[in-house]
């Protein structure tokens, strides 16, 4: 219980959360900037403010992710709207954006498969306004979030509702990127931490963790231009299996890249010959 009359400064030290989370939730519940937390540290909370703060602290204590409580998360230097219809963008996925930006030609066409919040597509389109970026997702609710993020950042992104390749017809792209569901259905991590609150369908393929990756790798060649790249995020222990799948489907320059933690987090390959 947070009592009206408690000062902002005292609450920063006494809330039952991590100090950073305390600051974030104080800012969110009270509508204050980080600077205002300091300049108004002696101000006492009203009854309404105390009630709002208590509500968000309780949500966090129940395990709800901070990003869902405050409604946004930073990714690739941009602020992304998030809700429980989409995964929370994570720093690991910034590696996929960096790899895509390095390989996408001038005025190139990029496809983001399973876009969720639009983190990959919007980041590329914002950084490279010359690119023609398409983002697809099976979830209409996810596409609504991606649309809001594209509009917020003035990023030109074409949004398409599609179950993987089903609505793409004969379109081709210079680069396809995807962060698909890759957690195996029995993985114990699904019942821990933030993952408990995120959309299950965006986390797990409800199989061995590789089924979505198999679909993308098997179908991407028909939608890539000659010399086009396929780039995939995957699990911490899946790099070798993903490379094998890429090689089995005839991709060239197959390789994996490590994230900031030194984990092989993304793999990809290039189409050396155009498929008819």
UniProtKB/TrEMBL annotation:
Binding site for S-adenosyl-L-methionine: 114-118, 137, 164, 179
Domain of life assignment: Bacteria
The EC number(s) this enzyme carries: 2.1.1.297
Positions of the Release factor glutamine methyltransferase N-terminal domain: 13-71
Keywords, sorted A to Z: Methyltransferase, S-adenosyl-L-methionine, Transferase
Catalytic class of the enzyme: transferase
Alphabetized SUPFAM superfamilies for the sequence: S-adenosyl-L-methionine-dependent methyltransferases (SSF53335)
Residues annotated as binding substrate: 179-182
The protein's role, per its UniProt record: Methylates the class 1 translation termination release factors RF1/PrfA and RF2/PrfB on the glutamine residue of the universally conserved GGQ motif.
Protein's name according to its UniProt entry: Release factor glutamine methyltransferase
Taxonomic placement: Bacteria, Pseudomonadati, Pseudomonadota, Betaproteobacteria, Burkholderiales
Gene: prmC
């Amino acid at each position: 219980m947070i009592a009206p009359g408690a000062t902002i400064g005292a609450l920063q030290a006494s809330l039952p959360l991590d100090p950073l989370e305390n600051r974030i939730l104080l800012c969110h519940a009270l509508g204050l900037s980080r600077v205002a937390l300091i300049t108004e540290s002696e101000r006492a909370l009203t009854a309404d403010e105390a009630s709002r703060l208590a509500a968000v602290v309780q949500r966090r204590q129940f395990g709800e992710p901070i990003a869902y409580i405050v409604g946004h998360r930073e990714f690739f230097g941009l602020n992304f709207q998030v809700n429980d219809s989409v995964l929370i963008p994570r720093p690991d996925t910034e590696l996929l954006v960096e790899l895509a930006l390095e390989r996408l030609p001038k005025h190139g066409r990029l496809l983001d498969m399973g876009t969720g919040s639009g983190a990959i597509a919007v980041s590329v389109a914002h950084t490279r306004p010359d690119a023609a970026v398409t983002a697809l997702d099976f979830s209409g609710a996810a596409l609504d979030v991606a649309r809001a993020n594209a509009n917020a950042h003035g990023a030109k992104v074409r949004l398409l509702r599609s179950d993987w390749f089903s609505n793409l017809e004969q379109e081709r792209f210079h680069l396809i990127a995807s962060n698909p569901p890759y957690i195996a259905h029995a993985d114990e991590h699904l019942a821990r931490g933030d993952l408990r609150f995120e959309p299950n369908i965006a986390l797990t393929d409800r199989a061995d963790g590789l089924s979505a990756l198999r679909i993308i790798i098997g179908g991407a060649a028909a939608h890539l231009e000659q010399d086009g790249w396929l780039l995939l995020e995957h699990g911490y222990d899946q790099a070798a299996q993903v490379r094998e799948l890429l090689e089995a489907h005839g991709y060239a320059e197959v390789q994996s890249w490590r994230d900031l933690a030194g984990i092989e987090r993304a793999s990809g390959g290039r189409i050396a010959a155009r498929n008819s």
